[in-house]
Specification:
Blueprint: E1 2-6, E2 10-16, E3 20-21, E4 31-33, H1 37-40, E5 45-52, H2 62-76, E6 83-86, E7 92-96, E8 102-108, H3 112-121, E9 145-151, E10 157-164, H4 170-184, H5 224-227, E11 232-239, H6 241-252, H7 262-277, E12 285-293, E13 311-319, H8 320-325, H9 328-341, H10 344-357, E14 366-371, E15 389-392, E16 400-406, E17 412-420, H11 421-431
Parallel strand pairs: 8-9, 12-14, 14-16
Antiparallel strand pairs: 1-2, 2-8, 3-8, 4-7, 5-10, 5-15, 6-7, 9-10, 11-17, 12-13, 16-17
Helix pairs in contact: 2-4, 6-7, 7-9, 7-11
């Protein structure tokens, strides 16, 4: 049972049944499933919740429908029914056992509105809607996929999913969940999965053709680690469409740039404001990291429905002093340069770099921007219509900033991040200038 005391009076309780397995409905392929080098570096758990409410349907059959459709979906996405293991080369692969993910049914002692109200003050409360195996000591002991269906007293329900990022990037995860919803509604798959990841194998012999500064280990000459000993504060900053338009206009001032995207302008703003708020030394190297979807940038393009990680980390490097003193257009230009880096040859070089070095991206002096703004996370429909709320669970790591869509049209954005209290106050001043 998960519980949390809220506002001194109400205590949230979520009663969870014992987990069971959901194997694929039909026999699926067994043996080892190849994971490419783009999968290897992101073996972290993504936790997402989807909230549904339909006054006509209630939630009586929710768990049954979600469970039965999952069993059918796993026939198409059979690697998700296996478990992670280590290959003879020391890399992650999937042992396709067909055992299926863990599935948990749960009940909350409140309405969904009450829960969302509590979560606005304490986002960690939402962790109660996602099942995590107690006592798992490492990524091999942690299931690659779990599902929890939680019913609320008002007739709403939540589908909470924990999935290892090495199995899917955001685009693949969305396509899988949308396919699962189509099956629940008795529809054929609009995008059948393409499961062959060997198309992204390293070259033989590997060829490193570019500097891969995403792995560069930066010296912390600003002693920011001391700041992070302060109490952490987590906030979400709203950017409505009018504010985003003003930000892009600011990026185009002076005529240096002819165009820029919302992502480029917002990333530049956050990168610069964060450097200022952490009081970085002018000579401090600072690195920006973000993922670029490589599906259409590979030559040939990845097949439609490619299931896996088709994203590549790109980077920009700059001294903090230059970042803070340069015109805003220059910072946006650095972000644009990082996007332009990502070509077929760059991505093949990144794949080969991992083959030779087995390196992990270093996070010293680094900001990692994760944008969910382009993903249709609100659309999975199990027969109860679109979600009334969708989002990640938990709070961002200290180097991570999260862009989440908000509002009815999903075109406004919320910028989520955590910082030491003193730094957060400066950050807020900086980005409120727009």
């Amino acid at each position: 049972m998960g519980s949390a005391v809220c506002d001194g009076k109400f205590e949230l309780e979520i009663k969870k049944d014992e987990p069971t397995r959901v194997p694929p409905l039909e026999e699926t392929e067994k043996g080892h499933y190849f994971m490419c080098n783009l999968d290897q570096n992101i073996a972290v758990i993504m936790r997402t919740i989807y909230l549904y409410k339909s006054p006509e349907k209630g939630n009586k059959d929710a768990a049954k429908v979600v469970r039965e459709s999952l069993s059918k979906a796993l026939v198409h996405f059979y690697p998700l029914a296996g478990r992670l293991t280590i290959s003879s080369e020391g890399k992650l692969i999937v042992d396709c056992t067909g055992e299926g993910p863990l599935f948990v049914e749960a009940e909350a002692n409140c309405s969904v509105l009450k829960l969302v109200g509590i979560a606005s003050g304490d986002p960690m409360v939402l962790k109660n809607l996602v099942y995590e195996v107690p006592g798992a000591k490492n990524i091999i002991e942690t299931p690659i996929f779990t599902v929890q269906v939680t019913k609320f007293s008002c007739g709403a329900f939540a589908v909470g999913i924990a999935m290892n990022h090495c199995m899917a990037d955001g685009i693949s995860a969305v396509e899988f969940i949308n396919s699962w919803g189509e099956i629940a509604r008795g529809l054929p798959l609009s995008i059948p999965p393409s499961l062959d990841r060997t198309i992204l194998k390293a070259r033989d012999p590997p060829q490193i053709e570019f500097p891969h500064n995403e792995f560069l280990d930066i010296e912390d000459i600003s002693n920011t680690h001391e700041l992070y000993e302060e109490e952490m504060m987590y906030k979400a900053f709203p950017f409505n469409t009018e504010k985003l338009v003003r930000l892009k206009e600011k990026a185009l001032e002076g005529g240096v740039l002819s165009k820029c995207t919302t992502f480029e302008a917002l990333t530049a703003l956050v990168w610069r404001a964060r450097c200022k708020s952490l009081k970085m030394h002018p000579d401090q190297q600072t690195k920006l990291l973000f993922a670029v979807d490589g599906r259409s940038r590979f030559n040939p393009e990845l097949p439609k429905g490619f299931f896996g990680n088709g994203i590549v980390l790109t980077n920009a490097l700059c001294k903090a002093g230059d970042l803070m003193e340069s015109p805003f257009s220059h910072v946006v230009e650095l972000v644009q340069g990082a996007v332009k880096l990502v070509t077929d040859s760059y991505m093949r070089s990144a794949i080969d770099y991992f083959e030779m070095k087995r390196a992990r991206p270093s996070m010293n002096g680094t900001l990692l921007v994760t944008a969910w703004s382009r993903l249709a996370f609100h659309s999975p429909n199990f027969g109860w219509g679109e979600t009334i709320y969708t989002g990640p669970v938990g709070v961002p790591e200290k180097e991570v900033v999260l862009f989440l869509p908000s509002g009815e049209d999903r075109r406004s954005l919320n910028v989520h991040l955590g910082m030491p209290v003193s730094a957060m106050n400066i950050f807020e001043e900086e980005i409120m200038k727009i």
